[in-house]
Amino acid sequence: MTANAAKTQATKNDLPEAVAQLKDKGNKALVAGHPLEAIGLYTEALDLLDEPNAIILSNRAQAFIKVENYGLVISDATLAIEADASYPKAYYRRGTAHFALGKAKLARKDFKQVCKLRPKDRDARSRYAECDKRVKEALFATAIQSAETVPLSDSFQANDIIIAPNYDGPHPDGGEVCLANGDLDKEDALFEPGKLPMDFVMAAIECFKNQKVIHKRYTARLLIHSKRYFETIPSLVDIKVPQSTEESKEDLHVTVCGDTHGQFYDVMNIFKLNGFPSPTNPYLFNGDFVDRGSFSVEVILTFLMFKMACPESIYLTRGNHETKNMNRIYGFEGEVKAKYDDKIFDLFLEVFGQLPLASVIEDKVFITHGGIPVVPTTLDEIRKIKRGGEPPEKGLMSDLLWSDPQPFPGKSPSKRGVGFAFGPDITEAFLEKNNLELLVRSHEVKDEGYLVEHGNKTITIFSAPNYCDSMGNKGAFIHFGKDCKPNFTQFEAVPHPDVRPMAYAAGMGGLFS
User: How many alpha carbons lie under 13 Å from residue 100 in its C-beta half-sphere?
Assistant: First the structure.
């Protein structure tokens, strides 16, 4: 036995019985897909010890990876390394977190250390190679970057894509065959905002339910026109609750949904419970449409089709998973390339880069994916945030996409490693400064599908029930009428085809599944 192995074995054997039992229970909870329970058990075990334990800290770091708390992963892994610099899993965990945060150089350094400690570990060498590749890609991208670079959406020739006679999916003009070459401009015009036939949208949804996708040519047109549409609107969108009509005396509302994460069949259940999007039944989906769930293509295409068919029927705000790095890790990139190709993925990224970052309902309810800035900020400043690419590591956009509430006053470093945690005093100050009544955000799984905190001033809404087929949580959505008082509806997960979450994640993505 080597000296390193002997030290680790001694660490295992020297644990008090109560600590060892808690660690074992935590391991079982983590394997069973219950990371939050595992975190609690590992924390109890660590609290019983007089000094840090590299194994338990690394195990808790793995549980934090499962809930995307990368800041806490780095903290635990670093403590584990300080406790035992020869323990390879600690470097493995920290490298994983650095990679998830887009810090490939730091990740490469950690996986290089794993390779030194475990020279025959093929998986570690593979992770190191992936990080090295990402570093070189970033250097190359920087070298060729030019202000004159033409976006793919400006040069992509959808007309050149041939639709084979055996394509049995829907066509936007309602016919049974695609339009002839002379009518391709007419076909393209059907994808302009407000012109996409609703019959095509509904036929496409039926196609998705049967695990088929619409043709690449139609998807490309949808993405290009969606990107151009979102370019024209501000980073903060004002939403009004529909007015009741003579024909309909009922009180109308806006429905706000949280993360859906590629759970297409649960999205269909939301529509079954609450009706399809329409001018009198508008929805706001608050980011994280994709990743993790393996029907992300179907989810985002459904939302974009409704947007192009009837812009006032559905509103979309960007989440932290509508980003290139998250898509590479959590499956959306692989899914798009499996169902279409790399060019379509690049068009999706262009759409994501133009999505609004926040909305306000009736000048009272502020809605964004992650949280609010921790510095005094006006709605007009948010409205003017420049979009069009990947979010920076810090600043207003980063705060809106990544931040989380905390129960105590003030701000703290984020458990995720990006953004901040903000207290009830920061929420109160933001709402008061902007003459608002309520903050609604998503970004975190909640057992009941929602959580009200900060003195009833902050609501977290999450709409992916039984998240990743393992969390056992409910989903929820909120109705806001003219009075802007929240009314919650909870729902359970529904069955879906036998395709596991993150089925399309490859490379480093295997670390996160």
Answer: 30
Residue type, 50: D
Q: Which amino acid is at 201?
A: V
What are the structure tokens assigned to 200, written together? Answer: 């095509």
pLDDT at 1: 43
Q: Across the chain, which distance is largest between two alpha carbons, in Å?
A: 83
Q: Which pair of tokens denotes residue 311? A: 């812009």
- Concatenated DSSP letters for 494-510? ----S--TTTT--GGGG
Q: How far apart are the first and last CA of the chain?
A: 32
pLDDT digits 0-9 by tens, 263-280: 999 999 999 999 999 999
The pLDDT assigned to 507 comes to 62
3-state DSSP helix/strand/coil % of the chain, to nearest 5 = 50, 10, 40
What's the rounded Cα separation, in Å, for the pair 109 and 3? Answer: 23
Answer yes or no: are the C-beta atoms of 355 and 318 closer than 8 Å. Answer: yes
The pLDDT of residue 310: 98
Torsion angle defined by CA atoms of residues 196, 198, 199 and 200, in that order, rounded to the nearest 10 degrees: 40
Residue 59 has pLDDT above 70, yes or no: yes
pTM (predicted TM-score): 0.91
Looking at this protein, which amino acid is placed at residue 76? D
Annotated catalytic sites, by residue? 321
Query: What is the DSSP secondary-structure string of 368-434?
Result: ESS---SS---HHHHHT---SSPPPSSSHHHHHHH-EE-SSSSEEE-TTSSSEEE-HHHHHHHHHHT
Nearest one of 438, 443, 440 to 419, comparing CA atoms: 443
The pLDDT, as a whole number, for residue 10 is 46
Give burial (CB, 10 Å; 0-12/13-18/19+) of 455: exposed
Question: Taking the alpha carbons of 415, 416, 419, 422 in that order, is the dihedral positive or negative?
Answer: negative
pLDDT of 168 higher than 70: yes
Nearest alpha-carbon partner for 494 in 480, 481, 475, 471: 475
d(CA 160, CA 191): 17
Asked if 385 and 396 touch (Cβ cutoff 8 Å), the reply is yes
Distance of CA 128 to the CA centre of its chain: 25
The pLDDT tens digits of the residues spanning 276-309 come to 999 999 999 999 999 999 999 999 999 999 999 9
Q: At CA 298, angle to CA 460 and CA 329, rounded to 5?
A: 70
Mean pLDDT value across residues 202-228: 98
Cβ-based neighbour number of residue 137 at 10 Å: 11
pLDDT, tens only, 95-124: 999 999 989 999 999 999 999 999 999 999
